Amino acid sequence: MADDEPLIREIFIDERPEDIFPYLVEADKYLTWMGVSAELDPRPGGIFQVDPNGRDVILGQFLEVDPPRRVVFTWGWKDPAHPVPAGSTRVEIELKPQGSGTLLRLTHTGLTGPVRERHAGGWTHYLGRLKLVMSSKNPGPDPYATPDHRHG
């Protein structure tokens, strides 16, 4: 796989897109699967800011919001020393009805090198937590939010 290819993750969730979409754009619901604080203004140009662990802050803005089918936002880390600057990459999440549930497809573009691999693991981890939440299960404490774990 080329280093600049989009990072793609897909999961099947046994819920309708209408039930999943709020968990992608509403701060209180977003925090059930990722982060300790969030400021989300789901409209083009609105802020996308998530603190996943009490130390590192993800900062971007919403580009497209098309309930309940699609949301697109920029992504990067607020810390100027981070190799993925605020708003420098793009995340697109599509929700496609499939049978009794939904295929969620996440495409993250603009990542290269080691940060791409760290984000690949991070997205697998967090989408798994979202699936648990949508299945009415408690995902438990997030091991990525521990003091000794830094995001990629």
Please tell me about this protein's structure.
The chain has helices spanning 17-20, 22-25, 27-30, 113-134, and strands at residues 7-13, 37-40, 47-51, 58-66, 70-75, 89-98, 101-109. With 152 residues, the chain is of the alpha+beta class. The chain has a single domain (7-141), classed as Alpha-D-Glucose-1,6-Bisphosphate, Chain A, domain 4 (2-Layer Sandwich), CATH 3.30.530.20. The chain has a 7-stranded antiparallel β-sheet with strand order 1-7-6-5-4-3-2. A hairpin with a 2-residue loop joins strand 6 and strand 7. The longest helix is centred in the last third of the chain and has 22 residues, at 113-134. It is globular. 25% of the residues are buried. The mean pLDDT is 93.
Looking at this protein, list some descriptive labels:
single chain; 4 helices; seven-stranded antiparallel sheet; 22% helix; 152 residues; Alpha-D-Glucose-1,6-Bisphosphate, Chain A, domain 4; 33% strand; 7 strands; alpha+beta; globular
